[in-house]
Amino acid sequence: MTLPRSTPPSWDNTQEYPSAASSLLTADLDHANNLRLKVAELAEHLAPYVPRAETFTEEERRTAVDKAQEATLHYEQAGILLQNVLTFLSCELSVDARQAAAKTLYGKTQTLQADLDRAFNPIELLLKLTDERFVAAYLQHPQIKPRTFQVQKNRELRDQTLPLGEEDLLIGLGVNGPLSWGNLYDSLAGSISCKLDLPEGARQVGLAEAASLSQDPRESVRETAHRAIGNAWRNHEESASAILNSLAGWRLEEYQRRSYKRPVHFLAAPLHQNRISRATLDAMMTAVREHVDLGRRVLRQQARILGKPKLAPWDLFAPCPASAKGSWQPPSFADAIKLIADAYSEIHPDMGDFVRMMDANRWIEATVGPNKRPGAYCTQFVKSRTPRVYMTYSGGMRELKTLAHELGHAFHSWVMRDMPLPATHYPMTLAETASIFGETVVNNVLLKHAQTDADRLQFTWAQAREVESFILNIPARYQFEKTFYERRQESTLTPSDLRHLMTESWQAWYGDALSEMDSMFWATKLHFSISELSFYNFPYTFGYLFSLGVYAQRERLAERFYPAYVALLRDTGTMTAEDVASKHLGADLTQPDFWRQSLAIAGDSVAQFEAAARQS
Predict the structure, then answer these.
(1) What's the predicted TM-score (pTM) here?
(2) Any idea what the CATH number is for the domain that residue 68 is in?
């Protein structure tokens, strides 16, 4: 696809480090290591207290509190330095996964992070296992008080805590266990190439560039790219299967060992990480299952518009055919930034200024390159408290929406930049609030300014596609992963098993709305092979429906909406999702009714799309 007027920018991260080989980066690693040694020295004095954490004498309590506070301050400072380096190296490798020196340094930094975590482990265990008096004294330090929510959440896991030696062993082995498997997937994703036989000639491209063709207006190109990506992963399916099985096997073994007091379900960790209860997850999924036909209606209507009996998997990001007839055309990157900034400004001028600042500072990476990793994300340099956005922008509605989405994440981080760092660690469920809110804002502005019936069809097409994504695709991913973990408890699954299971999961949600299922999605979707966490799926549907509930407050609150919205975002690091919803929306997330109300809003989007289709 040819971009009009301007090409996407590469980001400039030299404000953090001039390069991976810079003396500034080396100095940060050396300083972090010195701090780690100080943490380890203090923790050595505290380790003997861990087995008797609830039976301190008063003198021991005072000594332990002082040393724990000092160790925490060193630990947090070292963590900032290491995370800054890891972010920089991850950014470098995302753009070009072939950089051998950066890969090596990334692995060494991960090891240093694990060593730091292991050094701090006695303090973490002490805070989990000790009495409330110790915790209260520890949290009195003004620089440590912002950790209050984090400490209390960790104490919820006290009956899953292993002896200090075993906890240390898990951290140490993790570098060459799950982290290595995740790194292997990233390396594969950045190095695999596809041969595309396109109308303009054969091309050898990376996965990210091939994926960008999923929104080409020509079905033959979309199908060619889809099948090429699937076939490329089929050539590596044994490796992809080993990664998935090993990550799940590691986690299941850990959960089993933590089940000495009560069973630890494989959903317990992702629920805890996302700060929601099982009741909330079940209520949401119950409501979504009730409304499964919303997503299928979208696909059936899009099939009619495309002149097909049914859509195929390569059609899921197809552009609306009306785009060729309407006045609106896919924007260049520069025009996309202007469009998003103007849309954000309708909420508040500060939001528009933020988008323009991100672009002016070159904090966005959007180039098309052969060695780029696929996907899109927002990250943050914790030293400077500045966000970065990564994606591949080749034009089209999908990538416009992705840019709006990732800039929403970035805005979330930006409005928390003055807060103590421990108070800014929000879960993925609430992280998706600002990103999907950003997409919704852009959707509605596009629709409001539609000049023709063809424009209205194109914009409602994109809006309805979100319904399909969050009501069908994400639940299908969740069902696949849930069933996979259930079966993985019994044995490893072969690539054939995984293809069959993915097909079943897609069939359960897409029903007869697709002509075929994407059996290789378990390998092509990087979210299943992230080393740090599992179930990187249901938070997206949560975020979509929750953000619709937030956006619905805009008309009611009028000029009070923006400060209320920012206040909600700033609370996401120190509250559970249920408490945020109760405080800011007056909603009970453990009941299906909240989710049904948001799904009714999604239903309005589907109805608008169907009406636009009739009028075009």
Answers:
(1) 0.88
(2) 1.20.140.70
